[in-house]
Amino acid sequence: MSETTLPDYQDVETTLKSASLAVTPAELHGLLSGMLSGGLNIKESSWQPVLFDYTNDGMAWPQAAKQLAQTMLTFSAKELNADDFELSLLLPDEDSDIFVQADAVSDWVNHFISGLGLIGADVKKASKESKEALADLEEITKLGIDEDDDLEEQGDLLLQVVEHVKACVLTIHAEFGLRPEQTTPPTIH
């Protein structure tokens, strides 16, 4: 059996564009990751109507795009539930323009937060750690790079931001996300 991997950014972009879907690979992956971190049960197909409503005015996606989203969802669920605390974000490669990379990080995070909301994660009852992680993510959505900044330094800082995003996502998922043996989100008291 082959191991599922996160698809290539350019391949995802091509599939989404050919399906006439107005969502970027970073936005899609952020949205799916947010839904998973908010307690989505991937054993059900309840995620599809939510995704279609949010990204395509309720219209179903073409099969190739739907299969791609399923692959991304499966891969992300596996990573989020692993014990190694590794997390991949679907972003343009590091050779891409720094401004494109920064926009993609901001879009990924913004859609992650949207995914939490779409799935109904009750973040108001979250632990202090999850609230802090969410507040950090909300600040990251405002990310911007000035053309006058030292772009090499900004690239290094962006890598640090991405690592912080991963830590925040794992913190939130640990509280709200489903473990493989669960079928309902944890109850927050």
Structural description of this entry:
With 189 residues, the chain is mainly alpha-helical. It has a single domain (9-176), classed as Four Helix Bundle (Hemerythrin (Met), subunit A) (Up-down Bundle). Helices cover 60% and strands 0% of the residues. The chain starts with 8 loop residues before the first helix and ends in a 13-residue tail after the last helix.
From the structure above, extract its key features.
mainly alpha; Four Helix Bundle (Hemerythrin (Met), subunit A); 0% strand; globular
Largest sheet features: none
* CATH architecture assignment: Up-down Bundle
- Quaternary status: single chain
| Shape summary | globular
Q: Determine the number of helices (DSSP H or I, runs of at least 4 residues).
A: 7
The termini sit apart by 41 Å
Mean pLDDT level: 91
CATH fold node name = Four Helix Bundle (Hemerythrin (Met), subunit A)
Count of the domains: 1
Low-confidence runs (pLDDT<50, min 5 residues)?
none
CATH class: Mainly Alpha
Specify Rg, calculated over alpha carbons: 16 Å
CATH homologous superfamily designation: YgfB uncharacterised protein family PF03695
H and E order: HHHHHHH
Family: Belongs to the UPF0149 family.
Pfam family, one: UPF0149
Protein name: UPF0149 protein SAMN04488136_10120
Organism: Vibrio xiamenensis
